[in-house]
Design a protein that fits this description.
73% helix, elongated, single chain
Length: 355
């Protein structure tokens, strides 16, 4: 009872019995000393246990990977690519979170960001939309094996670049470009037809000459495109005046589905080409020469050019001319930038081979 009264005098604890002190020693000691010992011991035990479990899991995983690499090398490539992809996607998520926090903290808009941050947001948004079904499918226990099967049979259709091998990245880039390039002749033909409806005779003649030269296999000069830029802010070539057929063709050039109502197609085309225009402005501030080889190839691909078989110098040359065109255009002339994805890409490879 003396001990009980002592507890009462020290901490004012009601009903503090010796039996309770023996049964809950850490509680009373922490109350008497002010240190949460029970929390400390519990946290320490959990930390030690977690470390042991993680260490054991790493050893087992390393043995499992060696077993796969030795006995199932083709499956091991898919397995390692799968987990590498998730790591890269997680790193992208962290980087995008930092950029978003910076935008909120400093009140920045998308078009006020530096080039690499702007490009990261653009690409991450597209990657997430495509990868969400795969992530959801891999959540249930053992469902990741189903994902492996999908990766093996449908890697291009279902997965993003993070989950592709280096060879697949090059192969799929060419496939996507070939799908887009199939509509390039139709885009030039539609431009030729639209040019015939231009009221200004001089500009009409320049545009018809430009379109016919491209149909003959020649690559246009940037000065020739600048000369007719004003036509792309008016009917019938302004982005708000393009006919439905041409709009569907240009949607395919931009990797957008053409099977939507016309007003949605028009809005999406405007949104996507202005996004590229903002990237061009940021790239002009950065300088094309500061881009790495991978960044150069990606930038060319986004703007309509198949860069797989081009040298870094050729990519840099083409992209420099693109930026020169873009920075001199007005927003109202963005339709020319959209058409230039075709005009500056259709014969570029042939023009380089002939030199």
């Amino acid at each position: 009872m003396a001990l009980g009264r002592g507890c009462f005098r020290l901490q004012g604890l009601r009903g503090c019995r010796f039996s309770e002190f023996l049964h809950y020693p850490t509680v009373y000691v922490s109350q008497l000393t002010g240190h949460p010992l029970s929390q400390f011991f519990t946290t320490a035990k959990r930390s030690t246990l977690s470390s042991a479990i993680i260490s054991k899991a790493k050893r087992l995983n390393a043995k499992y990977e060696k077993f796969l690499e030795r006995n199932f090398p083709r499956f091991y490539v898919i397995y390692s690519t799968f987990f590498r992809g998730f790591r890269l996607l997680f790193l992208d998520f962290k980087e995008v979170s930092v950029i978003k926090h910076k935008m909120a903290e400093q009140g920045l808009k998308y078009n006020q960001l530096p080039y690499r941050e702007m490009e990261k947001l653009r690409q991450f948004r597209r990657d997430v939309i495509k990868v969400i079904p795969v992530v959801l499918l891999s959540i249930p226990p053992f469902a990741n094996y189903m994902v492996f099967i999908l990766m093996y049979f449908y890697p291009r259709q279902l997965l993003i670049r993070h989950f592709w091998t280096q060879e697949q990245q090059q192969e799929f880039t060419e496939i996507y470009h070939s799908m887009r390039a199939q509509v390039y002749p139709d885009a030039v033909s539609s431009l030729f037809k639209a040019a015939s409806r231009v009221p200004d005779r001089q500009l009409k003649g320049q545009l018809l000459h430009l379109a016919s030269k491209i149909q003959e296999g020649m690559h246009p000069e940037i000065s020739q495109l600048h000369a007719v830029a004003i036509l792309f802010s008016r009917p019938p070539l302004g982005i708000r005046r393009i006919d439905a057929h041409q709009m569907k063709i240009l949607s395919q050039v931009m990797f957008l589905t053409p099977h939507l109502p016309i007003f949605i197609l028009r809005r999406r085309l405007w949104s996507h080409i202005m996004e590229i225009r903002h990237l061009d402005q940021a790239l002009n501030n950065l300088g094309v020469h500061d881009l790495s080889e991978d960044e150069l190839r990606i930038a060319c691909h986004v703007r309509g050019l198949n860069s797989v078989h081009l040298s870094p110098a050729q990519c840099k040359d083409w992209l420099t001319k693109w930026v020169q065109l873009s920075k001199k255009l007005k927003d109202s002339e963005a339709s020319l930038l959209l058409h230039s994805m075709v005009l500056l890409s259709t014969n570029y490879l042939n023009s380089r081979k002939s030199k």
